[in-house]
């Protein structure tokens, strides 16, 4: 524990490629490796453990460690640099206390990425601000991280079809970390994804605002992979892709009070691409509003995958003019060419939808398009009220088994129909409209 804590903050290296801030501070970004101290050296391990456990706690955070009056924070403020180039920044350059107790990471003002994709280091195509191998820290401050994505979007193969598809940076990444708390930040106009959490556990995100135009390509809001015990709450996300996406290797993900729109909704997946195995378990979304999104609550898997999605609950969700409010799509295909039919699939079971209401833009208010060979099971609906303007909302099922109780509109009797046939029409229709554009 101790070793880990000691190492963690020294890895707190932010890769900044040109930084502009409006804070007016006279800090200057330096790359003085020789000044690196060992922050958090003083931690006795016990303190560290406590912090991590606290971070794992529920919605309330009254532990002094999290409280503002206990802050001994120094602002992480970076003064404008005209230079474009990588500036590795260590927290010590900003007078980090690093005693294992003081919490001293703040983002204030605005950190702006260079807008010209050509200026990006081709060796690091996927990353802008990266926080890696951290234990027990908090990042907050009310500031803004702006990816200046406009030119990246325009050159995306999804927008300019003559361009080859290539990678673009994620604005803000937490990787291989534990006990991290992100609070009160705005992340906007990311080059591609806004905020990724990977290979991490016990991460709490609250009061984060994410915004990009609805036509910005692949700009997922928060993307979670290979991570466990993640809590996301009180976040407002509007993007050109999924507001939140949860992919392989993720478990115990709790989302609460999420405002999503525009965007593609809240998604588990995509999973199982290129015949890969994937597992996602224990996902809860409680209290959300989705406005003018193309999907609402979605689970998407590619044909040919394996593994499973299990134990998912979506509850207390309001839909405002959402194209596909509730959707399971096991025929997901986001490629330029048609996806071929395959028999294996990522198994989907134990998915509950409870107290979901509002308006659907398409008649397809609930769609459970499950694999013929690996049907969905234990799909449960309770207290659903979805309608279109014309009153023609319907439920579609293909090999989806489960039940509904309480008030459920549109009726979902097809869930009780366990026969897995009659799907051919559906699949043909599906394969014809595969050219939707997202990762
Ligand atoms: C698409 O990209 C090509 C090559 O990068 C460029 O020449 C062309 O002007 C772009 N088209 C549009 C509409 O921006
Ligand atoms: C899925 O996650 C598991 C567990 O983290 C990992 O072992 C596996 O390699 C991942 N699969 C893919 C395709 O990334
Ligand atoms: C149902 O969800 C709505 C939010 O869409 C919430 O306001 C309401 O309190 C929930 N009802 C129950 C019984 O939990
Ligand atoms: C996939 O299966 C459907 C029937 O289930 C069939 O009509 C279609 O041609 C198949 N597509 C391919 C690419 O084999």
TrEMBL record:
Pfam families the record matches: Glyco_hydro_28 (PF00295)
Keyword terms: Cell wall, Cell wall biogenesis/degradation, Glycosidase, Hydrolase, Repeat, Secreted, Signal
Locations listed in the record: Secreted, Cell wall
Single GO MF descriptor: polygalacturonase activity
Record-linked PROSITE patterns: POLYGALACTURONASE
Enzyme class, broadest EC rank: hydrolase
GO biological process per UniProt: carbohydrate metabolic process; cell wall organization
Catalytic site positions: 264
The reaction(s) this protein catalyses: (1,4-alpha-D-galacturonosyl)n+m + H2O = (1,4-alpha-D-galacturonosyl)n + (1,4-alpha-D-galacturonosyl)m
Residues of the signal peptide: 1-25
The EC number(s) this enzyme carries: 3.2.1.15
Family designation: Belongs to the glycosyl hydrolase 28 family.
Name of the protein in question: endo-polygalacturonase
The encoding gene: LOC109717969
């Amino acid at each position: 524990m101790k070793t880990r804590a000691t190492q963690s903050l020294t890895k707190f290296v932010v890769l900044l490629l040109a930084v502009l801030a409006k804070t007016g501070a006279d800090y200057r970004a330096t790359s003085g490796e020789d000044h690196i101290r060992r922050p958090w050296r003083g931690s006795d391990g016990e303190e560290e453990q406590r912090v991590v456990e606290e971070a794992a706690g529920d919605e309330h955070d009254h532990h002094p460690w999290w409280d503002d009056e206990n802050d001994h924070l120094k602002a992480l403020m970076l003064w404008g640099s005209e230079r474009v180039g990588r500036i590795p920044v260590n927290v010590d350059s900003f007078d980090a206390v690093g005693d294992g107790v003081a919490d001293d990471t703040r983002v204030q003002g605005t950190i702006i990425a260079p807008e010209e994709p050509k200026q990006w280091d081709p060796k690091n195509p996927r990353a802008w601000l990266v926080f890696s191998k951290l234990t027990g820290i908090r990042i907050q401050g009310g500031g803004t991280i702006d990816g200046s994505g406009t030119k990246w979007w325009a050159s995306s193969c999804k927008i300019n079809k003559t361009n080859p598809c290539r990678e673009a940076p994620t604005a803000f990444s937490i990787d291989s970390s534990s006990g991290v708390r992100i609070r009160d930040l705005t992340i906007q106009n990311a080059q591609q994804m806004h905020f990724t959490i990977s290979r991490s556990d016990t991460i709490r995100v609250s009061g984060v605002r994410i915004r990009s135009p609805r036509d910005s390509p692949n700009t997922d809001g928060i993307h979670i992979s290979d991570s466990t015990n993640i809590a996301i709450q009180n976040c407002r996300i509007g993007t050109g892709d999924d507001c939140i996406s949860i992919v392989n290797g993720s478990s115990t993900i709790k989302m609460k009070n999420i405002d999503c729109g525009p965007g593609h909704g809240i998604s588990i997946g995509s999973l199982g691409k290129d015949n890969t195995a994937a597992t996602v378990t224990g996902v809860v979304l409680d209290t959300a509003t989705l406005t003018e999104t193309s999907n609402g609550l979605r689970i998407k898997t590619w044909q040919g995958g394996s593994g499973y999605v299990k134990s998912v609950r979506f509850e207390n969700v309001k839909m405002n003019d959402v194209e596909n409010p509730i959707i399971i799509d096991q025929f997901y295909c986001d490629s330029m060419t048609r996806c071929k039919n395959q028999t294996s699939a990522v198994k989907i079971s134990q998915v509950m939808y409870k107290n979901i209401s509002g308006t659907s833009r398409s008649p397809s208010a609930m769609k459970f398009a499950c694999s013929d060979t690996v049907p969905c099971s234990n799909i449960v609906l309770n207290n659903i009220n979805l309608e279109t303007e014309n009153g023609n909302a319907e439920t579609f099922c293909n090999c989806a088994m489960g039940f509904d109780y309480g008030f459920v509109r549109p009726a979902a009797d097809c869930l009780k129909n366990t026969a897995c046939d009659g799907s051919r029409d559906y699949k043909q229709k599906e394969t014809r409209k595969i050219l939707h554009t997202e990762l």
